[in-house]
Amino acid sequence: MQYIQAKVTQEANFYGKLNPVELIEKYGGPLYIYSERILRERCRDIKRLMRGPNFIVNYSAKANSNLSLLKIIKDEGCCVDAMSPGEIYVQLQAGFQPAQILYIGNNVSAEEMNYAINQGIQVSVDSLSQLELYGKINPHSTVVARFNTGVGAGHHKKVVTGGEKTKFGIETAFIPEVKDILQKYHLRLIGINQHIGSHFMDTHSYISGVQALLDVATQFPDLEFIDLGGGFGIPYHKYENEQRLDLAELSEKLEVILTKWVNTYGKQMNFKVEPGRYLVAECGILLGKVHTVKTNYMTKYIGTDLGFNVLMRPVLYNSYHDIEIYRSSNMQSRCQEAVTIVGNICESGDIIAEERKLPEVFEEDIIGVLDAGAYGYSMASNYNNRLRPAEVLITTQGDDVLIRQRETLEDLVRHYNSNAHY
Ligand SMILES: Cc1ncc(COP(=O)(O)O)c(C=O)c1O
Ligand SMILES: N[C@@H](CCCC[NH3+])C(=O)O
Question: Does the keyword Lyase feature in the UniProt annotation (predicted)?
């Protein structure tokens, strides 16, 4: 097999004992591959953000809720946050204890709240009306509230979750109303949280958000924890040597402001963060095959089986992913050229990479889409009745293990009611 453009994965010895062509031959494509080693490294990186037992990493499982990955993350000593009863269900299956799960809901129904409450899982509410609902359902208990401090950040406006133009969190101007509802239902606010948005690469906005959240915290004397949120970015432009987010710098800044704040609050505090992408993005690569190479009116299209049903990010946010090329044939790339890599979905926007400069690509080549572990499979769909792919873990020993089967055609009709009369 030839590694045509594969500097990143070769340096990381990503694929273990098999190469990407062999992995596709063995499991078929498209295929998500995850490196256990890189996943564990990222968990350890983020756990070094703060010292001591009062710091908890809550993995935000919406980024990737594969059961096997959850078990590894749990094994690394992380807890989790959940966005839905489905996430809670899978997290319990992965072995997390209810006390290790924080349900950070948004527009949650009474049934969904009860689902969490009945399992002993702490709920965080993000509006006055949800706080009222929680109080009615579960008075004389503890509650957590998500605030919107006005600070937002993110790689695209669709993923900025703090500030004026977002549905999330309780605006800080409503703190008096929060206190009234707490009193009315005899609720004790034990934690507050926020999440300013996804994928920041410098520490500035996160620190501003933390400072603003601490100002909110000062107004509630009974807190046991403050959850500072996630959003830690990863270098998607590895071929351009993009710098990593400076976690050491962030750690130093956090230490200064949190220590100062704890001294004035006058009581020990637990601090949490909620990283999703940071833990799982870089451990995942999406592999697919080139089925067609064609030119339409001067644009050279590389037609693959990587439709936006398997990786939505480029279509939804215009997101960039580095591309690698692996080849089983002896074909030789003669030049670098700008090509547009597309999938097999019936929409013109089904583009993974537009006008990307790559060594000449041939049919049957394997394409690797890097940093696809976060919001890849978890946002995959059955659009065009395509099947969601299989997922394979490369263990720290370099063995490949199937951790989720590829869907089958039968899965596509599994939930139809064939006895329906109409
Ligand atoms: C409440 C909450 N916490 C954490 C995250 C994780 O974000 P990220 O994957 O950017 O760390 C998200 C997603 O943006 C979120 O909505
Ligand atoms: N899905 C987004 C991140 C948003 C996370 C959820 N608030 C992405 O792929 O970048």
Answer: yes
Q: What is the pLDDT of residues 171-217, one digit of tens each?
A: 999 999 999 999 999 999 999 999 999 999 999 999 999 999 999 99
Distance, in Å, from the CA atom of 215 to the CA atom of 228, rounded to the nearest integer, reads: 12
- Give the C-alpha distances (Å, rounded to integers) separating 319 from 60, 91, 248, 370: 20, 28, 26, 12
If asked whether residues 98 and 211 sit together in one domain, one would say yes
Indicate if 283 belongs to the active site.
no
Residues with CB under 6 A from ligand 1: 60, 62-63, 81, 104, 161, 195, 198-199, 229-232, 274-278, 374
Q: Cα separations (Å) of 385 from 40, 341, 381, 411, 415?
A: 34, 21, 9, 10, 14
Among 279, 311, 339, the domain boundary falls at 279
Residue of 106, 66, 109 whose CA lies nearest to 83: 106
What spacing in Å lies between the alpha carbon of 45 and ligand 2's midpoint? 21
CA of 311 to the centre of ligand 1 (A): 18
Range of the domain at 170: 48-279
Ligand that lies nearest to the alpha carbon of residue 311, given by its number in the listed order? 2
pLDDT in tens, 121-180: 999 999 999 999 999 999 999 999 999 999 999 999 999 999 999 999 999 999 999 999
185 is in an annotated binding site: no
Q: Report the CATH number that the domain containing residue 369 is assigned in CATH.
A: 2.40.37.10
pTM above 0.90, yes or no: yes
231 and 265 in a single domain? The answer is yes
Per-residue pLDDT tens for 313-359?
999 999 999 999 999 999 999 999 999 999 999 999 999 999 999 99
Domain count, the chain: 2
For residue 146, give the ligand 1 atom closest to its CA: 1
Write down which residue in 279, 295, 329 finishes a domain: 279
Q: Are residues 90 and 137 in the same domain?
A: yes
Residues 195 and 246 in one domain: yes
